[in-house]
Design goal:
Length: 364
């Protein structure tokens, strides 16, 4: 690999440099820069949504009071319309004058009412998300983008429900007015010429009007039930945006570190020789370098001594073998000397015996 020159002229001798600081870590700057970018990304996200959340809080405070006032104003009218519709339905049963047809109409309405319930359930608060995003804040780095998208989706759902509920005080008054018009139209139809009126249709209209009257508050049993649901949707938005802001900060920090790593690799490719010399200085001037070398030398000597031990053992074995051989030779020499001595003694005895002509110990 060809390294681009990192400076002009000849490089100074690195051994003439002062020893580098043992705790030197320029990489700390990357951490500071990336942390700052994370804080900036989080602050920018909060600033972009602060006005929206502030407006939502203001609407929440207004809706709490307005909803109570709307229900207070609607209650007597709704109750009166309920009584009136009960009477109208009984009168229409008589005007239809056919129990079988009334039964079929009731059955048909029950089927349609269930379909309406499936589409628009009048059961109070339909927002069921607990919006507990604490675990999402600590998701793996590779999952941050997907986690942000999921939290944003849930937050937008809460926002849609909140926006719908905020309109309830006005919507109650509008539904009461519409119900009054429905009942008035049925009453007008009943008062028309019986020969031109289809009482079965009026009966169906009356059943629908009665269902509107019974569901005029969308299933909220009281004011507190409505306020609790509204508060949950607002809280979900606040938690969602807080979690997303945190993750946006983490995302910016992660991207910053990736960019820094790319820059470090690029610098390493173009200044490889300089990096080698920098590592040389770091290694050669390390405060514990001499101690480490001495320790390494001692370990090397101990290893060499361990290698010599088998040679010493073999030398000692050879020495013992030589000693045993010498001892054997000495014993053999002594045995030969004794044999020679015995031979000489035997020769002397035979000489004396021959000279004396008899027993070797017999005196002449």
């Amino acid at each position: 690999m060809t390294n681009a020159p990192s400076g002009s002229g000849n490089r100074p001798d690195p051994d003439d440099h002062h020893s580098p600081c043992a705790d030197c870590d320029p990489g700390l700057l990357d951490h500071l820069k990336c942390d700052a970018k994370g804080i900036k990304a989080q602050a920018e996200y909060n600033a972009a949504h602060l006005a929206e959340l502030d407006d939502a809080r203001t609407k929440y405070d207004s809706a709490r009071h307005a909803y109570g006032e709307a229900r207070k104003a609607a209650r007597p009218v709704v109750e009166e319309l309920g009584k009136q519709l009960g009477q109208i339905i009984e009168q229409l049963k008589c005007l239809v004058d056919n129990t079988y047809k009334i039964g079929v109409l009731d059955e048909a309405f029950a089927i349609v009412r269930q379909r309406l319930h499936d589409c628009h359930p009048p059961v109070g608060c339909t927002f069921e998300d607990d919006c507990d995003f604490d675990d999402n804040r600590h998701c793996p780095p590779d999952d941050i983008a997907a986690t942000i998208a999921d939290i944003d989706r849930r937050t937008q759902t809460a926002k849609a429900v909140f926006t719908d509920l905020i309109a309830e005080p006005t919507a109650i008054a509008a539904r009461v007015t519409a119900l009054q018009a429905e009942v008035a139209a049925i009453v007008t139809g009943m008062a028309s010429d019986s020969r031109t009126v289809d009482f079965k249709t009026l009966y169906a209209d009356a059943l629908v009007a009665q269902w509107h009257q019974q569901t005029i508050y969308r299933g909220f049993a009281h004011v507190n039930a409505y306020v609790d649901c509204l508060c949950r949707t607002l809280t979900c938005q606040l938690r969602g945006h807080a979690a997303i802001a945190h993750l946006k900060g983490r995302e910016a920090v992660q991207q910053c570190h990736k960019d820094a790593e790319i820059a470090r690799c690029a610098h390493l490719r173009t200044h490889t020789a300089d990096e080698v010399m920098a590592e040389y200085l770091r290694i050669i001037d390390h405060p514990h370098r001499h101690e480490e070398d001495a320790h390494r030398d001692r370990e090397h000597d101990r290893g060499r001594d361990r290698d010599r031990d088998p040679d010493r053992d073999r030398d000692r074995d050879r020495d013992r073998d030589r000693d045993r051989d010498r001892d054997g030779d000495r014993d053999g020499d002594r045995d030969r000397d004794r044999d020679r001595d015995r031979d000489r003694d035997g020769d002397r005895d035979r000489d004396r015996e021959s000279r004396s002509g008899g027993h070797p110990y017999e005196e002449r």
